[in-house]
Amino acid sequence: MNKEEIINPAGDAGIRDMLAGSGYSDKAISYFIEKTYMGDLPQADQETEMTGTCGDTMKVCLKINKNIIEDIRYQVLGCPGAVASAMAAAELVKGKPLEDARAVNDNDIFNLLEEIPDKKHHCIQLAVKTLHKTLDEYQNARS
């Protein structure tokens, strides 16, 4: 077995089946598996971390140029709902002005994800709250 098989013996198909059976849409599952906006952002203009009531932790790293979110990364220690919500939030704000990013709400992320289990809606809230806190801290540091 290679390292990936040890970490993920069911492979992506097995993960997709498990998550679909738990109530995640194909779109939400793809965000979880692909993790397009996951990781660190060297020389970020702002980094902010937040822990949700369930214990999931998110960190947002922003690279901002002329009030536009040039790049964004989330680091997530949490469940598939947390990862999918963070990736959806990042997709919604990358390349957007700060004021547009500040307007992103829970419903915007839910609509992009299409469906996640009801008991995971707090993950969407955490992704939004962490994003908003990051934007607030960035703006407050420059006021």
Please provide a written account of the structure:
The chain has one domain (3-141): Sufe protein. Chain: A, CATH 3.90.1010.10. It is elongated, with a radius of gyration of 15 Å. 51% of the residues lie in helices and 17% in strands. The protein contains seven helices and three strands, in the order αααβββαααα. The chain is of the alpha+beta class. It has a three-stranded antiparallel beta sheet, covered by helices on one side.
How would a crystallographer describe the biggest sheet? Answer: 3 strands, antiparallel
Mean pLDDT, nearest integer? 93
Radius of gyration: 15 Å
Number of helices: 7
CATH class descriptor name: Alpha Beta
What is the CATH topology descriptor?
Answer: Sufe protein. Chain: A
Q: Pairing-aware structural class of the strands and helices?
A: alpha+beta
Strand content: 15-25%
Total of domains = 1
Low-confidence stretches: 1-6
The run of helices and strands is: HHHEEEHHHH
Which strand order does the major sheet show?
1-2-3
Distance between the termini: 54 Å
Q: What's the total number of strands?
A: 3
Q: Please estimate the helix content.
A: 40-55%
- What is the approximate shape? elongated
Query: What CATH architecture label applies?
Result: Alpha-Beta Complex
